[in-house]
Amino acid sequence: KFDDISRKLATLEADSQKGNERADAAEKKITDIEEELKVVGQSLQTLEVGEEKTIHREETLQFEIMELRNKLKASEYRGEQAEMNIQRLNVRIDQTEEDLLGEKMKIKKISDELNQTFEDMLNM
User: Fold this and answer.
1) I want to staple 46 with a disulfide (CB 3.0 to 4.6 A). Which of 16, 28, 34, 42 is the partner?
2) CA-CA distances (angstroms) from residue 11 to 7, 8, 23, 70, 85?
């Protein structure tokens, strides 16, 4: 389970890095648009449209980051629960093994007593 959590964490970090790279690419795109506006003389309205797209993209990325964090927390919780279940099962296995050993000892004792009884009966 720990390996699963580690892999999920690595995936989340990679997704976060990709998100940052997309945000950097979006910032570069804004810079390019501003230079193009100066050269070509586009209107202020075109710049506002680009800005709105960037804000929307940023909100989308922030929402994705929030979802990834929630998934990570859920994965960590499931991992902790799995660890606790493993510990409980190990305790139960140990108890069952002890019970089995005790029962084997009882059977051995009864078998020995029965053999002794048969020997006593034969020796009479």
Assistant:
1) 42
2) 6, 5, 18, 14, 25
Q: What angle do CA 84, 90, 92 make, to 5 degrees?
A: 105
Amino acid found at 29: K
Global confidence as pTM: 0.44
Question: CA 99, 103, 106: angle at the middle one, nearest 5?
Answer: 140
Tens of pLDDT along the chain (124 residues) come to: 778 888 888 888 898 999 999 999 999 998 888 787 666 665 666 667 888 999 999 999 999 999 999 999 999 999 999 999 999 999 999 999 999 999 999 999 999 999 999 998 988 7
Q: Which of 62, 55, 69 is nearest to 20 (CA)?
A: 62
DSSP state of 104: H
> Residue 47 is encoded by which pair of tokens?
């710049």
